[in-house]
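Hey everyone, long-time lurker, first post.

I ran two proteins through the pipeline my lab uses and got sequence/structure pairs for each. Pasting them in order. The first:
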Amino acid sequence: MMKTTWMVVIGILTAVSALGCTNFGKRDPVPPPPFNAAGDGVAQVDYEEDVKRGQSPEKETEKVSDHAWWDPTGVGTKAIEVTGSNSDNKKLAKQLFAKAEALYDEGIAAEGDQRKEKLNEAAGIFKRAALYHQKSSLEEDALMYAGECYFFLDNYPEATRQYDNLIKKYPNTSHLDVIGRRRFKLARYWLDRHSKDQTWALQPNLLDHELPTFDRFGNAVKLFDQIRLDDPTGDLADDATLAAANAHFRRGSFEAADRFYTDLRENFPTSEHQFTAHYLGVVTKLKVYQGPEYDGKPLEEAETLLTRIKRQFPDQTQKNLKVIEKLDFDIRAAKAARLWTNAAFYDRRREYAGARHYYAKIVEEFPTSNLAEEAKKRIVEIKGLPDAPTPPAEFLYSWLEPKSNLPKASKTPIENIATKPDDDSQSR
């Protein structure tokens, strides 16, 4: 009965771009331009503290060695850095950052193997710079640039790790918007690769450095989730929620999709995706509903959502009237089938009082349905039959029933206690 609705939903989901339809006739939200790709016109941040862009600080004439006098090869220094036991050295951190920044600029402008070599080297030096001046804006920017190096190297799993590390240390970082755009782009890319070549969650990826080692789908949805959790008021928070919901919907994970659609409706009330979240929420709840023999809560929630759609989105309702009416019909048909199942249950047990009750409700609530005609016929057929069945061979065991004229215990426990004094009580 809901076949037409399913076909309409498939048409809607395929009409929009890869993940997350924004509304009927609109495309998916597209992330803004990159953070600082070569030639994008975005000025890089000056990483000298308390110095604005365009105000060059005084150049330090004294260079600081990046290894101790007792360690000419630098092996010991690297071992200390790996263990995190290095001491804070602001001058060395700035020196390393400047070197890494120069390599980054050269790498962005280069191509082929030279680009990979420069950016790989820059990423390593950025991470070293962050170690030598922790809890500072320099560390924050160094971690961001390390992630950008891996992003432009197409090493997306390592880039996401650097972004995660940055947000873990600096939850309110000024780079939050850029990281959100990077995550959104990577999530869509991983989902696209997953849809073209689906793999098991535990199937390892050992060759393609653009993809996570395990579970492309799960990691993609995780990125969408991180966008909305790390920056719930950001521009992409509602877009990421919708994209995650649609990803689960296409996969057939309707309960997970329903959770994301519900989150979008409740936590992003001003989002442009509200109508889409309501409409697909109704469809998802009908998919979650398993039939008349199971819990009817999803069906009731679907009916509530559909009523809200008609009240809150009158214009969109008129534009998509046929689809809305089809959903309304499906919900009413499912409710009628639920009542019929209850009536048939009591009918089979020859408990005709219950059967008459549910048949009457079908006629009353769904008078134009085909089940109403069948219910009317059945009411006539069972008219005059006893409300409850007469037990078979009752005469064989009726004498075992307790006599009805025996005294009964009071409903109030204290009244069941003897109150008249006996001989013993008198003597006492």
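...and the second, right after it:
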Amino acid sequence: MAFLDSTTRRSLLEPSIRRPARRGLIARQVWTVVGMYALSRVYSSALIAILLWIVLANGWSVPSYYSEPWYVLADGAHYRDTVNFFTFSGLWDGEHYNYIFNHGYPVHPPVDGTGAIAPNPWAFLPVYPLVVKGLSLVTGFGFFSLGTVFSMVCGLGAAIALYFLIHDRAGHKTAQFVTALFAFGPLGFLLQTTYAESLFFLLMFSAMLLFQRERYWLMTIPASIAAFTRPGEVALAAAVLIVFCVKWWRAHFALERVEFPWRQRIAMIAAGLITFVTGMAWPVVGSIVTGLPGLYMSTELSWRVDLIGYAPFVPFAAPFEFFGRYTGAFGVVFAAAAVAGFAYWLFRRRLRRLGMPMLATVGSYALYLFAVVTPTQSFLRLCMPLIPMFADPAIALSAKWRRVVFYGFAALQVVFIVLLWYLTNP
């Protein structure tokens, strides 16, 4: 119990605390997160506005600033008429979501000169642009302004869900620290761009929280929506399987048997199946609509042709192919060392206090990244769901390390917004 702060210990050890008092405590915790997140949005908005002002004041071109994604432009580049805070927040992947917002998905995807599937909107999942489209029909606002505000609101929901996910296991101070890293971190500005990240984080952290609280049927709701928001939800299915196996072993073979009732077993099996099926459904949808088997995989592989050429997908090979191509044997060793280092961090004894559901989900998601993702600059964005790892007591319970990590992360956002927003895509 030393891992928890005094407020959390009191709430756990005194079940007689009145329900109104408990609701009041939860409300105060929520407002703490709201205030923190609001400050983070002021910080990120200021960085975006300053960067835009510098770009316009110097007459620099705005990267990836077309009326349509580059792969659907027939003749030359067609630039949008105006540059403002909202359209500047809609660069890169935002253009692809804007295309889906306006045109939907192509029934006949484009092909390149070799006849292979070329980059196309099927790489981007539908929930985010369709929700923004629905809100646009109600409010009359366009994609970029409405998408920016919607992402910002989803980011707040994600921060609240993350706070309670960590709070359940590590108490207020650690939860506040991890949530602050999430909001102020190097890629915190993405929480208000027209990317699907904020919505995905809200859904994933909510599903993880329900999973942690053993609400297996309920967790399938945000998990299933997340499966059509951004790739990666399938990690939840693996996490459910891991926790199920651990519970089953403890119920049958552990020295101190732990009850594992059939009602819970059935709920976990159903949750695992639902999250797996929904996590694998979007490729099937794409193939049915276009009549092209393997469309989604071909589309994803088309985005890395310029990096590692035309190569079939081999699980767990992408990091070694990428680093080996550009840095030789040193890169391969680096990739192996990075994987080994993360595994060592994940299996440290002190992290076990975060609980099997959280660690199983984070570990499964990391394994998913290792299996399928080419480690380009976008890899850092894809790593954001690993933020619960910073609840590590070695970091979160040290005032010195909390300050170093937080201020270091916040300062890096200044660098990253230039490198991974203006100069290239995150």
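Reply from user beta_strand_b:
Welcome! Quick read of the second one: The mean pLDDT is 88. The chain has one domain: 6-423.
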